Amino acid sequence: MKTLFLTFETKDKTSIPSIVYNDTLLYIRYNIRESCICTYESDSALVDCITSHGISIVVTTKDVSYETALLLRGLNVVLIVIGINPELKEITDIEIDPLLTRKTRRNRNFAGPHYLLSSIVEKLGLGVLAKTMKLPADKLEEELQSNQAEVELVDIVSLFKKLQWDSAYFGFNIGFISCLRLTPNIERIVKDFTKSEKIELLEYLCNCHDKVSVINAEKSGYSFVDIRLTFERHLNNDICINEKEGYRVGKGRLQDIEKLRSTSSDIYKDSRYYFDGEFDREKVIEFYVNWIKKAILGKFDDYAYVMYRKDDPVGFCSVKEYKKNAVSIGLVGIDKAVQGNGMAEYLLNKSLMKLRENGKKYVEVVTQGRNYEAQRLYQKCGFLTKKTELWYHKWFH
User: If you ran DSSP here, which 8-state letter would residue 271 be given?
Assistant: First the structure.
């Protein structure tokens, strides 16, 4: 699969949007294998380039004309445009625009500061970008706390990947559509990928607002298996803790692992792997039981906060650091013997307080649509819903 990055000679080279869009395009280009870049000369030269090099994906900026975009659509390439051009809405497969704010992006898949590269922020300055986006600088800074643009932009343009660890663990080839979007053009390339990599299970995570992708997933034989809810909390407010006599929370220790493994043995029941029914049940249980072990050892998540009754570990909250000031919570579990009476809130709020004491400003956590208890816990502890996505599985038996 080859990707062409298409640029245009324009007079508007120094405006903030132009710099953002072109720098974004160049960053992705340098991080995508089997890619080439060219400057637009004519439609005929572009067609020759695409056909002679076997191009499957074209990434360009909103400077592309409607006529050229229509030509690219006729060539059945996946068209990815950086910067919103209303004329191209029905032609492009994927639109990316880091400069759109929440008021203007209207549930678009890849819009807003979440996709703003840190190199661009450093180059132009937070104040300049905030003014361009008509946002208070502190608000833009807050939105950037959860930003993982460097990784996610490359995943989007790559479209899909084989999940190496998952494939090795479950014993069959598992693929993942990493672009969140599913159009007929993308599905066509995905089919080639599944054949060449001998994929037995294809996983697809879809924006719940993306009607086009939902319809295409259903038409293409994907089965809905789960709702993925992402919650977020900025650690800039007071954390309310009701102290529990005889309990404390601290970093997990090696000697806690065996006890905590049993605490996590039932967590798998709310997972998409359990609901799917095609997975080896023992493998699924083992996956969740070993999660806390790997967290304490720093091999999956980075560490875990553990709740102790005297010196006995009775609960855990695993944590992964993905930016200097931002973390994600992986798994939370409470021993059945101490469930109730606000113990889960105590564990989570204590963990949040320790994270804030260690300089963390932003926390994200994912849970399943079926796990009502977890959703209520996060809401009680000040988390707000960030996004809702749909999990689809497609098996090739």
Answer: S
pLDDT over 70 percentage in the chain: 98
Instruction: Please tell me the predicted confidence (pLDDT) of residue 107.
Output: 55
String of DSSP letters for 198-246? T-SEEEEEEETT-HHHHHHHHHTT-EEEEEEEEEEEETTS-------TT
Segment holding 383, helix H or strand E: none
The span from the CA of 29 to the CA of 154, in Å, is 9
The one-character DSSP state at 338 is G
Residue 198: which residues within 8 A CB-CB, separation 6 or more? 173
Read off the pLDDT band of 22 (50, 70, 90): very high
pLDDT (tens digit per residue) in 319-362: 999 988 999 999 999 988 888 889 999 999 999 999 999 999 99
- Is the model's pLDDT at 104 over the cut of 80? no
**Fold held by 2-143:** Rossmann fold (3.40.50)
The mean pLDDT of 240-256, rounded to a whole number, is: 91
Q: Which CATH number fits domain 233-389: 3.30.450.20, 3.30.1360.200, 3.40.630.30, 3.30.750.200?
A: 3.40.630.30
Which segments within the chain are labelled E, that is strand? Answer: 2-7, 35-39, 55-61, 78-82, 94-97, 110-111, 160-162, 174-177, 201-207, 223-234, 247-251, 303-309, 312-323, 326-334, 362-368, 384-395
CA distance 6 to 20: 15
| pLDDT at 339 (0 to 100) | 83
Q: How far apart are CA 354 and CA 112, in angstroms?
A: 30
What residue ranges do the domains of the chain occupy? Answer: 2-143, 159-221, 233-389
Contact 301, 295 (CB under 8 A): yes
Which tokens belong to 109? 């898949």
DSSP string computed for 125-158: -HHHHHHHHT--HHHHHHHHTT--HHHHHHHHHH
CA–CA gap between residue 285 and residue 291 (Å, rounded): 10
Q: State pTM to two decimals.
A: 0.91
